[in-house]
Amino acid sequence: MSNLGTLYGLGVGPGDPELITVKAFRVIQESPVIAYPKKRKGSKSYAHRIVEVYIRPEEKEMLGLVFPMTKDQTILDREWNETVEKVWQKLYEGKDVAFVTEGDPLLYSTFIHMMKLMQELHPEVEIKTVPGISSFNGSASRLGIALADGDDHVAIIPARDDYEAMKKAIEDHDAVVFIKVAKVIDLMITVLKDLDLLEKASVVTKVTSDEEVIWNLSELEGLELEYLTLMVVRK
Q1: Where do the Tetrapyrrole methylase domain residues begin and end (predicted)?
Q2: What DSSP state is assigned to residue 31?
């Protein structure tokens, strides 16, 4: 089936539209179908907002994909299969599909599962990825923090509600970027206080975007933060 389209996983950076690569820009321009995560209520996804400055919707097929937010495996399987089939239909028509995702497509990205399921259901599809600047790179730049130098050890860790694991992660590395930190921010502040490292931590939401917020840690306890928030701890 040589006339199949190619599926691209396109990293479009952490928030600032100028931080997409030249290659990502080219693929956006050349792909007739732009796939993007879509919220159920119809509002634009973060990745969509990043790239919309480069897209003329009247010249593209905009394929909004809703991804299930549930732990029910039956629902997950059904909705994911439906989503992959929507993309497959465009590929079967011979159209290249550029799936845009914030950050990098192979680092904590929705595209990873899309790629695996497409390979499983339609192994004949050619899949290519275009790397993107991740939020931890953007945060290092915006905060002026060198994440690693010489023989330093750096880790990227999803924050979770486990005091000992979070404490050990900080103790074992010279720098740690904790993603998904919003839901456990109070616990993380407690860990930092106990390690006497509160002054070594920074928290930023939607880094490099026009909605970026760099937080003062003293005002974070009890605060409800947005999902796209991370913490950098640099000893």
Answers
A1: 6-220
A2: -
pLDDT at position 193 over 60 = yes
Count CB atoms within 10 A of the CB of residue 174.
17
Residue 80: its pLDDT value, please?
Answer: 87
What's the start-to-end Cα distance of the chain, in Å? 54
Cα 89 from Cα 97, distance rounded (Å): 10
Which residues is 56 bridged to in the sheet? Answer: none
158-161 long-range contacts, CB within 8 A, separation 24+: 158/108, 159/183, 159/184, 159/188, 159/231, 160/184, 161/187
pLDDT at position 11 over 90: yes
Tell me: the pLDDT tens digits for 49-78?
Answer: 899 999 988 899 999 998 877 777 888 888
